[in-house]
Write a structure and sequence with these properties.
The complex is a heterodimer of chains A (395) and B (385). Chain A is 73% helix and 0% strand. Chain A is mostly helical and 395 residues long. Chain A folds into 2 domains: 122 residues; 212 residues, MetI-like (MetI-like fold, Orthogonal Bundle). The longest helix of chain A has 30 residues. The N and C termini of chain A lie far apart (61 Å). The model of chain A has no long low-confidence stretch (mean pLDDT 86). Among the domains of chain B are: 199 residues, MetI-like fold (Orthogonal Bundle), CATH 1.10.3720.10; 61 residues. Helix content of chain B is 66%, strand content 7%. Chain B is built from 12 helices and 8 strands. The chains are: A mainly alpha (395), B alpha+beta (385). At the A-B interface, helix 1, helix 2, helix 10, helix 11 and helix 15 of A face helix 1, helix 3, helix 4, helix 9 and helix 11 of B.
Amino acid sequence: MTTTAETIGPPRTSVGALGWLKRNLFSPWYNALLSLISVWLIYSVGGQTVQWALTARWEVITSNLRLFMVGSFPPDQVWRVWLVVTLASLLAGMSGGIGGRTARNIVFSLAASFGLFGVLSLAGGGYEWHFANVLAIGAGYLLTRGRAQWGRWVALAWLLAFFLTLFILYGIEKNEWLPLIGTDRWGGLLLTFLLSIVGIVFSFPLGVLLALGRRSRMPMISLFSTLYIEIVRGVPLVTVLFIAQIMVPLFLPEEMRLDRIMRAMAGVTLFAAAYMAENVRGGLQAVPSGQVEAAHALGLSDTLVTVFIVLPQALRVVIPPIVSLFIGLFKDTTLVAIVGLLDLLAVGKSVLAQPEFLGLQKEVYVFVAGVFFIFCYVMSYASYRLEIALGVGKR
Amino acid sequence: MAEPTTTRVPFWRDVRVLTILTQVIFVVVVALVAGFLYANVSTTMRQRGLVSDLRFLDLEAGFEIGEAMIPYAATDTYGRALLAGFSNTLLVSVVGIILSTILGVVVGVARLSPNWLLSQLAAIYIELIRNTPLLVQLFFIYFGVFVTLPSVGQSIEFQGIIFANQRGLFLPRPAPTETFATWAWFILGAIVLALALFYFSTRVKTRYLGWVALLALILLPVLGWFIAGAPLSFEIPVRERFNFKGGMNLSPEFSALLTGLVLYTAGFIAEVVRAGILAVRRGQVEAAYSLGLNAGQVLRMIIFPQALRVIIPPLTSQYLNLAKNSSLAIAIGFPDLFSVATTSANQTGQPVPVYLLVMATYLAMSLFTSLLMNIYNRSVQVLEK
């Protein structure tokens, strides 16, 4: 008779919840101490924050929501903003249909939040647009699902939508349906978005040119490109914005006067172009020199090599850095509040001047920070996933 | 058989000619644009009665500056006012760089800690800081915290030596006494001894020499403190009827700006540090352990030197960002270089020279910092082949 060896499981303290706790929180003695300090921090800071959030007077936000979103945009014309948002939703839905799991998750969360806001505003009215957005996202998604070959056209549609947006918001002179709305009426989150999107879209071609210029073999062109890039990168954005506001009018003749928002957009674009150029340059350097040599050997000229061989490969690599540049720009547009433009942050400041909301700084700035956080976090998450999808850094 | 023809390439297809021609055209266009802008600016300035020289620097400024590192009064010149502003920018940048490096390294290492709770806390901090604009954080810290502090009478106090109220922070001020010189020698000796021991510990195969070095660095100054007999006296702020007297007073503006810059930059430095440490290959660490090095030695001799090489370039750009971001002082009323320059530009009505001067200063600061960091960078890089 033989005794079967009993299988002895691992000690109870190294598996399961207990094992996890021991491994991750208490394993050398000092980790236990660190864990205790962390718990204390969470308890004291987190507890106070929750307590404050529950007792804070959030009505300062809810009663000024339109101001926060669109600033002093004429209330009877707000439908134009909604139209633009719905257009973006449609395109987002289409991108979601084409893209991978991450894009789908983001688009579905977007639809869910529109639905949630719609339900919340059922009583107060204005819910139609929220539900229209949910529908737009759904329609876009169903339209492109399983049609990955449409990707190029969707990208083109985004670009067209950008110019269409500017047109819809600006309007036509002496028109009944789309009356002209001066850019000085653009404000709030709308302005924040417009500034950063205009900045990134227009700085892209400029940045590519500057990057090519800096790597050019012609000394004069490379010198001027380098000078521009280094000077702009060496000074703070505030100085660029101040110069755009105060000095640009001095440099341009009377007929070419730009209004304040256009000047800020020009400043942001010129500033972003220098950073864009450095990102693109990084991408250009990542293209193996064998590619260029092979193309030359096939008899392509310098221009053709740049346009058809180098740039397509380089720009693919720089998509994630451009997303982070966009996030930075999105955050940096708050600086226009210093030069007197009414962006999301400046609206917050002006709301605080209303007599009934004096002393509610914490509520207002936490709300503004929260809005920025949501957008930036989603964008950086998407960029992180994109980086993995593109396989950057795994050469 | 036809002779190979050696026709000359026509000049419009000759690369050398084209290169020169392109550059000539480029320079001419740049010069034309510059000339156009210059013509405009000189007409506009003549129309508005503006001048573009630096003579205003010698005029009396006539405005007060809240605080400055150098003595300044309203009767001083614009030049001195700008210098006072510059001193403030330098102060907040240098102190900010030191503090944000310390905090950033701590948070970055905490993010990589095997302790799950600690690592998650660090992650929350990093995400919160990096995904919200610095200006919003500054507004929150200044308008939401420092401005809402109680009046002098109801100051918040910590242990009876640190006070916070509407007028800012009041801290004990260290003042050297006559025995300070003796104590300074102890500190110097401790540093020299620690460096020497540390140097030996990397060569000689002993386990504890590194710890002895650290111990010497701490113990010698403490010993010296008692031998010399209180080389520093701490002047504790005393509450009087309307204000505090003595001690060190940090204005609410300075405190808010410094806090904002440090918290913000530390979030970015933490990510830089984390990326640097993760960039050290696992095989390096495993090989070091298999050679019998202990955890401390692996960290000090294997991970740290290699991570440093990856960390320095992005760290430099974070330092530069901090210095440039200090110009946001204007939004909360701290008189830094840019804020003083804006006042000067408004008063003199000569924005062109004032802003050009300020931009040149920031540029010089940036170039100087990159130069220093590049020299340091070169000293830590491995020479390959």
